What does this fold into?
Amino acid sequence: MGSVLSFVASNPVSAPTVNTNSPTTINATSATVSGAVNPNGGATTAWFRYSSINPGSCNDAFGTRVLSSGGFSAGSGTSFVSYSNNFTGLVTGTTYYYCAIASNAGGISFGSVLSFVASDPPMLPTVTTNAATSITVDSAILNGTVNPNGAGNSGLGWFRYSTTNPGSCNDSFGTRAPASGGAIGYAGGTTTTPYERTISGLTGGSLYYFCAIANNPYGNGYGSMMQFTTPFSPPTVTTDPPTSVNATSATLNGTVNPNGNTATA
It folds into this structure.
C-alpha cells in the first residue's frame, strides 16, 4: 500500500494590481512619490524604480530601486493600499522617470511611468520687458529677455500690446505678438536669452503699452509694462497750378493734409 499524502485546496493567487501616483512633494534634490497596490489575496511586497533616463515602460531593471531590497509590505487583502518612498540625491532641474512595482506568489506587476522635474520650488521663467526700438509711424520692434530657470524648463516667449493700459502684464489684454506660438522657442537652462518681435499696422501719434511673456512647464512668467509713442505722420502737401498769372505777379497754390497734427505750410 502506498503512503497517505495530503493537500489543501486553494485558489491560485493572482498577481497584484499596482498604480503609479503623482509625486506628493518635489524639492531641489529630493521627492516623495506614491503608489497604490491591490494584493489580490496574496502576500505582496511593493517598491519603486526611478531614473533620469526614460525607460519607455516600467520594468524592474532600469535606474535605481527604492527600497534597494525588500519593500513595502502590502499584506494579502483584496483592496488597494497606498505606499510611498523618498528619492534623494537628485540633481536640480533634471527630469526623473519613475514607476511603482509590486509582486506576490502570482507574479510581478508594473504601474505606468510618470515623471517630474527636481526643483525647489518649481520655478517660472524670469522675464524682462526691454524698451521698444525702431519705432516708426506704423511699426516698432518689441524686446525682452527670458531665463528658463531650469534644465527641463523649455518654452516659448511672446509679447502683448495695446493702446489701453492693462495695469499689469497678463496674457489676455490687447494683441498677442505673434498671434500663436512664440517669438522665440528656447531650451531649458539658466541662461538669459534676448528675443524680439516686429509689430506693424500701428497708428501714428498713439501711445502703446506692451510687455514680454514667456512660459515653461510650470506656467507663465511676465515682464513689467512698458510704453512707447509712435510719431505722427508728416503732413501731406500737394503743389497746385498757379493762378492769376500776369507780367509781374502770380498766385501760387497748394493743399496740405496735417494727418492729425498741427501743421504749418
